[in-house]
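Let us begin with a simple case.
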Amino acid sequence: MHLENIVWDARDPDRLGRFWAAALGAEPAGDDCHRLHLGDTWLDLCFQPVPDGPDDGRRLHLDVLGGASQAARVDELLALGATRADIGQGEVPWVVLADPEGNPFCVMDDRAEYRATGPIAALPLDSADPDRDARFWAALTGWVPAEGTPGIRTLRHPAGVGPLLELCPESAPHTTKNRLHLDVRRTSPGDDELRALGAQPVDEAEGLPWRVYADPSGNEFCVLDPSEG
């Protein structure tokens, strides 16, 4: 299996997709911005239409590369339609913004571990047990441990490029559906391997080309059917 997509629940997928395409320099995969290609980072960005839903399902977010030009990057994102956000972060070396649908994201300071990440520096995911969940996601995706922030378990694609996946200690347990989630592409049918790793089925709907699971901390992710051809 491999990690394939970052997926947003979006009230207006076109608007949100256009924002992130401009923010990250991503290319639309078709005539609209519902799916974006992000260069050589191993991940596509997808925006799926949903009705208004809970605003507190924010256990996964993007850390955008800011680096030495962090202040200028913040100004660029504000000009594209981002807004400043206060999520209780206090005094920190990064800047918290929100996209046009209110999803918080961070513009990061300059760090050595962000070399070769591309425009997305990291994908922080809340975890009830970062050690356990790092083992789960490593086994699920083939990503490997990487240098990161103390107290956070960090994984990266084995090629050493693309964003970091960070398992961060949660401030509260999972209680509602996340507005962002990850998609994993399976290479063979069946879910015995997923259950053995600790994944739990969430959606038993039949006839769809994916199934919804939760990781050991309750974070939803989708497992896509094997690619044809």
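The second case is a distinct protein. As before, the sequence precedes its structure tokens.
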Amino acid sequence: MAILKPMAADDQRGSATNRVQTAVREAIINLELAPGSMIDKAALCERFDVSRFPVSDALARLQTEGLVEVLPQRGTRVSRIRVSDVRQAMFIRRALEVEMVRTLTATMPDSVLDQLDLNIQYQRLAVERVEPKVFHELDLAFHNLMLDCLGYQRVNTAIDSARASLERARRMLSSPRRHADTLAEHEAIFRALAARDAVAAAEAMQNHVDTVLAELMALMALQPEVFDQGS
């Protein structure tokens, strides 16, 4: 058996940086670190048992991702959610996903319809049991089933990018009432696909996206401190 060489100092630092970056990113996306809150570097060093260098490297990477910002003489804080990013992401999703379901009414195999039907049954259970994390995963899976069936990789990439811009805002909307409404909207999309009705499918998807956008805009008015109104 080959003897593993000790990890070089640069490799150790890189591994620690990745660990801190992943954990802090998840905390930001999950809203454990609220938009606009300051990040305590010393606390991160203590939590991960690392020096300040990996923490600084990790925060620099997260700044590149747009998740944190450095304030001169003050420190690092979690970036607020950019309103322009939300609007653009929803515009992209509306344009692509409405056209997606319009196309799929003529091409979707019955086997995929069966998978969508099963997914909705699980969504219904998640709503009844008030399981937000499970519902969120099923919500993503519902849309991914349609995207995979469409088979256009560039469309997948564009929508994945749009989702990333929306993730924190969407999690702020999470509630039993929103999940029940989303389920009803998904059911309308499914019924139209099953009926092979392109017009109804497009209308159902457009209503789904527009309803979420309207609620996001209302949330921005209620919690302006969380959002960045800049361009």
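Residues 120 and 186 are 8 Å apart (CA to CA). Confidence is low (pLDDT under 50) at residues 1-13.
Keep these points in mind for the review questions at the end of the chapter.
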